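ZP: hey, is the zinc ion complex queued? I don't see it on the tracker
AM: it wasn't, my bad. submitting now with these inputs:
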Amino acid sequence: MEVIKHYEYLHEIPELGFNEFKTSEYLKTTLKNAGFKIQELDKTGFYTELGSGDEIIGLRADIDALGHIIDNIACAKHTCGHDAHMSMLLCAALKAKEQNIIKNKKIRFIFQPAEELGSGALKMIELGACDNLSAIFGMHIRPIQECPSPKAIASMYYAASAAIKIDIVGKAAHGARPHLGINAIDIGVSIIDLARKIYIDPNKPSSIKATRFICDSGVTNSIPSEATLVFDLRAQHNESMQEMKEKLEKIIVNMANTYDAKINYEYLINIPAAIIDKKLAKICEEVIVDTLGEDNLIKEQFTPGGEDFFFYPIKLGIPSAFMGLGVDCSPGLHHPQMQLNKNALENGVNLWLNLIKKLENLK
Ligand SMILES: [Zn+2]
Ligand SMILES: [Zn+2]
């Protein structure tokens, strides 16, 4: 199968966000050799189009790998399946051209860098990847527990996710004279304690928790003046995320006042929750039934994971839909030993092709 050949090649050249040079080159060369014109956007992100209609619909695949530490060695590895995503979209583009199935519309195949950094989609928007799009579709492989092969999910409801880094600056002092210092550990602990008392409507799933707390003055008998805290925030709805952020920011400001310390914060990750268009979701359901059969359709799935794809509908104000594909991925996404069933990748190619056919005939 052609898709497996591309997947195997891309799997062996994993590259981190905005550095997907070999990956992007391979995709572009393959497309160019098949007669496609490439619109380069930055060093790695690009799109290519098929068809000539006035209406342009975007299909997006992400192309970056994750950074792992395996056997004490830092390395890039495709453990989120983006190698599968780009192989499937690449094959769909090649086959759509070969079979000449696009006549009434224009389909834009978008290859996006740096999804894992949470900023690739924003970069693509800034560089015009989505200019004049009337809708956009995405697809992600799913863990076996959620969606075994050959099932597929019509609507993936990703959560909003954020990571906030908080830098605390207190005042150093001798351990014997704590009243002369401002202890950064005390401040960090107070913030963590109060953050645990942020309550959001439990009917709308959300969570907030500290995921990093670094503080070490180098000795055990002095009051530490500096600490760094990171919180991971998740919410199934954008409103809950907003509420959680506002409450946490208020705590930070109040703790700075209470302890007479300096506290700065910044968002390292800030990804919105899924916004799925009902009409497009219905089209995805029909595509899955046509491609894989009624028994293999899962209508919707909620996940606390984040996906930067949803910047497209939010920033551009266009409808979007996002499918999940079962490829027997185990033990799970982002696991350093993640495995998948390569034979299931053809299902993704066929889903894209049948979606294109359906969009073609849509009034
Ligand atoms: Zn990922
Ligand atoms: Zn991913």
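AM: back. The chain has two domains: 2-158+274-360, 160-271.
ZP: great, adding it to the tracker
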